[in-house]
């Protein structure tokens, strides 16, 4: 759906709704992931903060006035119809849009205290802090070992023992070690699609990111490989923060603590996943999650 669609976009509902019990809706039943917030607690800690973000591809506006916060050690899903700006926003979170010509960005994105778009920000260092996994796994045409060691090697790490330890830890972290430990020198291209995707996750983990950005990481995978990645997401949030773009609402309901629903480049509603899928505050969110459009 294009951003110039004439239908009006509702006013965004940005802050989690007050707790007033949960309704229930047949169909998608999310797991409860995080305890509901204490209404008397102080401001919640934030890993990522998006403030008044607008993004233009040439003359075309793809994101409008996005305000969003992602809590540390949580999983946030971005959902919404095709073309609503999910991937564009995800790429703003580690400046991957810099690689696209004619992109203009207004507003701020903060990773911890770092203003991502400040002139002094080191983009290479930033992308180590916020790693990315894409829809289509993209291992390098190298061995399994070298794929995972790659990020450390370009940081100048030469110590074989350090590299071996990091490769093992990262492959274990990505749930792949047992499947590949006896063939680390084999080409990564010989792995199955699901294994290649976990290898790409291991490659991202090797440089110890604080945030993992995942753009439809399971869309090319079968249900078994998808389940492994989903389990991995739940394990990984113990040590980092994850933002995932998904077309699969059941997946959003299964893996994420928070869900943000976008339409036509605007954030319509963000809340605890449990509430988005049971008692959304905006009619359009309800229409989308119940399959009335999209
Ligand atoms: N490189 C680009 N140049 C110009 N326009 C782009 C570019 N990438 C995306 N767009 C446009 O920006 C809007 C948002 O696209 P984006 O891919 O972020 O949406 P999405 O919600 O991730 O879609 P999908 O679910 O289909 O991947 C769309 O209208 C798209 O056509």
Automatic annotation (TrEMBL):
Source superkingdom: Bacteria
Keywords of the record, alphabetical order, are: ATP-binding, Nucleotide-binding, Phosphate transport, Transport
Q: Where is the ABC transporter domain?
A: 48-289
Gene Ontology MF annotations: ATP binding
One Pfam entry for this protein is: ABC_tran
Q: Specify whether Nucleotide-binding is a keyword of the entry.
A: yes
Q: Does the keyword RNA-binding apply?
A: no
Could you tell me which InterPro entries the record lists for this protein? AAA+_ATPase, ABC_transporter-like_ATP-bd, ABC_transporter-like_CS, P-loop_NTPase, PstB-like
Q: Where is region (Disordered) located? A: 1-21
Which PANTHER family does the record associate with it? Answer: ABC TRANSPORTER I FAMILY MEMBER 17 (PTHR43423)
Matching NCBIfam families: 3a0107s01c2 (TIGR00972)
Q: What is this protein called?
A: Phosphate import ATP-binding protein PstB
Q: Which organism is it from?
A: Geothrix oryzae
The taxonomy runs: Bacteria, Pseudomonadati, Acidobacteriota, Holophagae, Holophagales
């Amino acid at each position: 759906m294009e951003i110039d669609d004439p239908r009006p976009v509702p006013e965004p509902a940005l802050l989690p709704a007050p707790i007033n019990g949960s309704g229930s809706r047949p169909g998608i039943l999310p797991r409860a992931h995080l305890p509901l917030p204490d209404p008397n607690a102080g401001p919640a800690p934030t890993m990522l903060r998006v403030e008044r973000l607008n993004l233009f591809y040439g003359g075309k506006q793809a994101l409008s006035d996005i305000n969003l916060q992602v809590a540390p050690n949580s999983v946030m899903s971005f959902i919404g119809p095709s073309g609503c700006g999910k991937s564009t926003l995800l790429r703003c979170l580690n400046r991957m849009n810099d690689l696209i010509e004619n992109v203009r960005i207004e507003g701020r994105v903060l990773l911890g205290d770092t203003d991502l778009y400040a002139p002094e920000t080191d983009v290479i260092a930033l992308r180590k802090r916020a790693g990315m996994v894409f829809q289509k796994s993209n291992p390098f045409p190298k061995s399994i070992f070298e794929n995972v060691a790659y990020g450390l090697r370009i940081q100048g790490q030469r110590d074989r023992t350090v590299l071996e330890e990091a490769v093992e830890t990262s492959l274990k972290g990505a749930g792949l070690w047992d499947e590949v430990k006896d063939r680390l020198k084999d080409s990564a291209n010989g792995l199955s699609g699901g294994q290649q995707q976990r290898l790409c996750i291991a490659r991202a983990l090797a440089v110890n990111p604080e945030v993992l950005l995942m753009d439809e990481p399971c869309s090319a995978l079968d249900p078994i490989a998808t389940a492994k990645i989903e389990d991995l997401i739940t394990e990984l949030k113990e040590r980092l923060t994850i933002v995932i773009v998904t077309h699969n609402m059941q997946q959003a309901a299964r893996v994420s603590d928070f869900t943000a629903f976008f339409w036509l480049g605007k954030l319509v509603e963000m809340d605890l996943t449990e509430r988005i899928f049971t008692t959304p505050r905006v009619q359009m969110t309800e229409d989308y999650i119940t399959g009335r459009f999209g």
